[in-house]
User: What shape does this take?
Amino acid sequence: MAKISGSQLDQLIRLSELYLDEKEKQDIKIKLSKVLTYIEKLKEVDTSCTTETSQVTGIVDVFREDKHVSIKQKKPFSGKYYIAPAVFE
Assistant: This one.
């Protein structure tokens, strides 16, 4: 199991601005060690035949074009609010 030292844990806790008692520190140390062990195991996986991807769904950007309309062209509603067209259909 990958080990995290006490000084490394103290520095991480300080940087995270956490306030932990000794029992909580020991629990975090065990959990972090398990995470680091898992990461070490992942490093052993051969990914040389795997293509890099940034996403897997195939969805492309589906944003609509912006329409610039002057707020002065809109009629006020209740004196202080403006009626805007719906964003969703």
Remarks:
- Strands lie at 76-77, 81-82.
- The first strand starts at residue 76 and ends at 77.
- The first helix runs from residue 6 to 16.
